[in-house]
Amino acid sequence: MNKLSLRQIVGITIWWTEGTKAYTDKRWRRSLVYPVDVTNTNPDIIKSFLEFLRKDVGINELRLKLQLQIHGGDNQIEMEKYWSEITKIPLSRFTKTIVRPVGNKVGKSKGTCKVRYSDKATYLRLEDMWKNVLTLLKKNGRAAGNRTQSLRSQSANTTGIRRPVF
């Protein structure tokens, strides 16, 4: 198992928690779609995920797309420009912006940004990275459990009276 950097652990965790998972394409029987998509309103999460894709995964930048969801009444041009600057993705690679009915959050956010990238090999690589993170967590959990047990035995008093350990 390869050692993972903090950026890789953060990036893969963002993808696993905020991303779209593989699904069956309704148009074709037994055909799976492997999206490497993340949707969020927080620009720091989007930037962190893109940095991970660009620096650690090595994606084809030209295949990277962006889609926004905004509310009616929001300034679409301003929001598209904002996300283009944040993500360093040109407006020419934005897919159609989805405009939802006027909600109670008009003007309170810069919209919901969806990073879109579709590639089976990349998806499977990310899935393997996630499994590595889980393995590391399990291994560290066992090590922490062993340390806790050791500390418990060391904390036994010398009177021979057994104290409860919480």
Secondary structure layout plus pairing:
Layout: H1 6-18, E1 23-24, E2 32-33, E3 38-40, H2 43-57, E4 65-71, H3 76-87, E5 98-100, E6 112-116, H4 120-154
Parallel strand pairs: 4-5
Antiparallel strand pairs: 1-2, 3-6, 4-6
Helix pairs in contact: 1-2, 1-4
Characterization of the model:
The protein has one domain (6-154). The protein contains four helices and six strands. The longest helix is centred in the last third of the chain and has 35 residues, at 120-154. The protein has helices at residues 6-18, 43-57, 76-87, 120-154; strands at residues 23-24, 32-33, 38-40, 65-71, 98-100, 112-116. It has 166 residues and is of the alpha+beta class. The chain is globular.
Features:
single chain, 4 helices, 13% strand, globular, four-stranded mixed sheet, alpha+beta, 166 residues, two-stranded antiparallel ribbon
**Which residues form runs of ≥5 with pLDDT under 50?**
147-166
The sequence of SSEs as H and E is: HEEEHEHEEH
Q: Which structural class is indicated by helix and strand composition?
A: alpha+beta
Bin the strand percentage. 5-15%
Mean model confidence by pLDDT: 84
- Described by the principal axes of the CA atoms, the overall outline is globular
- Domains, number: 1
Please bin the fraction of helical residues.
40-55%
Specify the number of helices.
4
Number of strands: 6
